[in-house]
Design goal:
- This protein is of the alpha+beta class and 403 residues long.
- 38% of the residues lie in helices and 17% in strands.
- It has 14 helices and 16 strands.
- It has helices spanning 4-15, 20-27, 31-39, 56-68, 74-81, 87-101, 162-176, 201-208, 224-236, 246-260, 272-281, 359-373, 381-384, 389-395; strands at residues 117-123, 129-130, 136-137, 141-146, 152-156, 182-185, 192-193, 196-197, 211-214, 295-300, 306-309, 312-315, 324-329, 333-338, 341-347, 355-356.
- The strands form five sheets. It has a five-stranded mixed β-sheet with strand order 5-4-1-6-9, sandwiched between helices.
- The longest helix is centred in the N-terminal third of the chain and has 15 residues, at 87-101.
- The chain is elongated, with a radius of gyration of 40 Å.
């Protein structure tokens, strides 16, 4: 077999008008070799003839097993077919055969109509954020990307609890200014598992008149828009930034998103902000009544005049000890009411296991404790019934008696 260089030289010489006989003589090759080089459709290549190996007797059985179970480990295959040779050699051959039997999962190109969908996800920035107790932790950021316009909104939230997820969604939809007809999530536990949504999710979507669609496993393409943007945030927003609190992170992230939404997206050849108007025009309007979101609880206030939200305790006016109080908390505020009257208000802390106390509640509790420990002396009921007899004389106009 001649080399690729000789093949190319033969074709060039003949194309320049050199006779084939002279080409063969000058290159020291046979005339038949020259004719084969001119007739070939492409450059010559070496093809090694297949010869039987130690794996050949087992190949048919391995193929049968892979056809039924494409992901069967090589060690199990070796045991099933009775292989006793080199395990490395067996794995090399299985690696060669496995792609022929692996199930194919083609992905279609998706077309996103205006107003149809928004993809939702949690992004965990690779930088710990300082909290109220001095600890630094990784916190989730809820991100929503409108599928048609690629417009992005996001906000850091304290937990992955359903209450905080719904609070985050509601805040971001208000920033967006409209409600997409579908909210696409993966199997986030705070949103739902299996065939059921988490408690409160159905009422939330019902108030918004939208549909929450949870994707099946192994379907990354259907939520690829928002997941690719998570990587974009890490490479374009995070480098070189420092954050002193979750509020500081949200302020910086919101400012950066305004710039990012004004950049041209290569796949749509437009900026998200330019396509947002058409996207919102096809969305649903925000509901006239806000959905019931947040941490909500009704408890009887105990002698320990604190209520718990998430994992932290907040003080309440001890005057309502023993009575039912309604607790409501959002991402930034905790309020407690008794029969509609506000009896406690605190800034919500994101750190875990903290105790938040209002000094006024401590003072009130001290006064109530002193009253309980030192009650007023009881009045003698018999003494209260004794009156001076002169009072009766004056009442009936009798002259006074001289003792």
């Amino acid at each position: 077999m001649i080399s690729v260089e000789d093949w190319a030289l033969i074709r060039r010489l003949v194309a320049d008008g050199v006779p084939q006989r002279q080409v063969a003589r000058d290159l020291g090759i046979g005339r038949e070799t020259v004719r084969r080089a001119l007739a070939a459709d492409g450059p010559p290549k070496y093809v090694r003839a297949s010869v039987p190996t130690s794996f050949t007797p087992f190949e048919a059985r391995v193929r049968q097993l892979l056809a039924k179970t494409p992901q069967m480990p090589a060690t199990v295959l070796a045991e099933r077919v009775g292989w006793t040779g080199s395990m490395t050699w067996f794995r090399d051959n299985v690696r060669r055969l496995r792609p022929e039997h692996r199930l194919v999962d083609p992905s279609d190109r998706l077309t996103w109509l205006p107003g149809d969908a928004a993809q939702c996800d949690l992004w965990f920035p690779p930088k710990k954020i300082p909290l109220e107790d001095g600890r630094r932790v990784l916190l989730p950021v809820m991100v929503i990307t409108a599928a048609h316009s690629r417009f992005m909104v996001g906000r850091m939230i304290p937990t992955r609890h359903t209450a905080d997820l719904l609070l985050g969604m509601w805040m971001l939809l208000q920033v967006l200014g409209a409600v997409p007809r579908r909210l696409i999530w993966d199997n986030e536990s705070g949103i739902g598992r299996g065939k059921r949504h988490a408690e409160g999710v159905g009422a939330f979507t019902g108030t918004l008149a939208t549909t929450l669609q949870r994707l099946k496993p192994y379907d990354p393409e259907s939520k690829g828009l928002v997941e690719r943007r998570n990587g974009f945030f890490e490479t374009s927003f995070m480098p070189g930034r420092e954050f002193c609190s979750p509020a500081d992170f949200n302020a910086q992230f919101t400012g950066w998103l305004a710039l990012a939404n004004a950049r041209v997206v290569r796949t749509i050849k437009a900026t998200p902000i330019d396509r947002l108007a058409a996207d919102k025009a096809a969305m649903l309007p925000l509901p006239p009544v806000a959905p019931a979101v947040g941490w909500v609880n009704r408890v009887r206030l105990g002698r320990d005049y604190y209520v718990r939200v998430d994992s932290s305790d907040y003080s309440v006016d001890p005057a309502v000890i023993g009575r039912f109080v309604d607790v409501h908390a959002d991402l930034s505020r905790v309020e407690v009411r008794h029969e509609g009257r506000l009896v406690a208000a605190h800034d919500r802390v994101w750190a875990r296991g903290m105790t938040i106390t209002d000094p006024a509640h401590v003072t009130a509790a001290k006064a109530l404790r002193e009253q309980f420990q030192h009650p007023l002396p009881a009045v003698d009921p018999d003494a209260a019934m004794v009156r001076d007899l002169a009072d009766y004389d004056r009442a009936f106009g009798l002259p006074g008696q001289v003792a």
